[in-house]
Amino acid sequence: MGETQILGRGGRVAGSVVSSLLAAVLLGWVVRDLAVVGPPGLWWQWAGRSAGFGLLESSRTTGLDVLLLAIHAVVAVKAMRSDSAAVLLGATGALTVALRLPAVVDHLQRAGGAELFGGPAPGALATAAGSVLGGLVLIAVAGAGRRPAGPRARAGVPGRAPAAWAGTLLLLGGAVLLAWQAHTIVTYGWERYAAVYFGTGGPRGSVLLGEVGWQTVALAGFALAAGVVCLRRGRGARALGVPAALLVGGTQALVLGAYLEGSVYEQLTLVDTYAQLALVTPPVLCVLAAVVLAVLLPRPAAGDPGQAGPYGPGPAPWQTPAPGPYGAPGPR
């Protein structure tokens, strides 16, 4: 996304509508799951699946689905106002395609049409395929709906220190996620890893997403890309950094919640070093994500008298007091 272009109004409206539709469809799935298993049961499925507890077939949503729902809802609003709307829509579209496409392939390979639309996960193929199509539309809108930017298009770029902190921490978080995937491959071998973590022949853990290994690699790649953009202080630093931190922190918070509910940390001193590191990783990544959000989220500047507005620094002309005895300062 070039520094001299910004998304036009038509592209903003189209991106907002598509993001709203994606959020609405996901909300429907969450409401369905709540009606079936109730809030406590659904929370445990989200957290337990994120932590890898159990390998049973699942026809429910996951915690990552809920995080995507929140991101789509926020993007639908921010696309109408943000100078980095093109980056935000393009990144959201790419992430949606990356996370949903494996589910489409999995549904097409596993069963016939009767199960896809009338079995334990009715409409799953249509939802996943529609989400992939929606993601592609977001990418197309981000690329084709731009126009020359105005002089204030870089207003949302974070400062050097916040950008450096955010970029470094996002790169660190992405590297940690990938390192654990590499460790799992070395420990279990590629065949078992592919079957369990990439879903090649194993039980399906999500009806709308790829398996946990694919999800982790996609999130790690997103965090690494956002980290590079933050370090370069690109115009999309906040548009990429904030969602990346939310996704990494949110997924790790679910894992941490499952560990706490399962009293896993009571065994911390009894397990080997690798297991201890694995148990420490979720809280560390949650703190990392919180720091990234703290340094990237913009601060309100409504009371800043030196903030440059459309009429230059200071208040607007009609807000400036007149000189003289009825509008001091001025000679009396």
Give short descriptive properties of this protein.
332 residues; mainly alpha; two-stranded antiparallel ribbon; two-stranded antiparallel sheet; 10 helices; 4 strands; globular
Instruction: Label the structural class.
Output: mainly alpha
What pattern of helices and strands is seen along the backbone? Answer: EHHHHHEHHHHHEE
Could you estimate the helical fraction of the residues in percent?
A: 55-70%
The overall average pLDDT, rounded, is 80
The largest β sheet comes out as: 2 strands, antiparallel
Strands ordered across the widest β-sheet: 1-2
Number of helices: 10
Distance from first to last alpha carbon? 56 Å
Shape: globular
What's the count of strands?
4
How large, in whole angstroms, is the Cα Rg? 23 Å
Stretches with pLDDT under 50, minimum 5 residues: 302-320
Percent range for β-strand residues: under 5%
Summarize the model shown.
With 332 residues, this protein is mainly α. It has 10 helices and 4 strands; from the N terminus they run βαααααβαααααββ.
What does this structure look like?
The structure is a single chain. With 332 residues, this protein is mainly alpha-helical. The chain is 66% helix and 3% strand. It is built from 10 helices and 4 strands; from the N terminus they run βαααααβαααααββ. The protein has helices spanning 9-51, 63-78, 85-110, 113-118, 124-144, 160-188, 190-197, 212-231, 237-261, 273-296, and strands at residues 5-7, 146-148, 308-309, 312-313. The strands form 2 sheets. The chain has a two-stranded antiparallel sheet with strand order 1-2. A two-stranded antiparallel ribbon has the order 3-4. α3 (85-110) runs antiparallel to α5 (124-144). The longest helix has 43 residues, at 9-51. Residues 302-320 have low confidence and may be disordered.
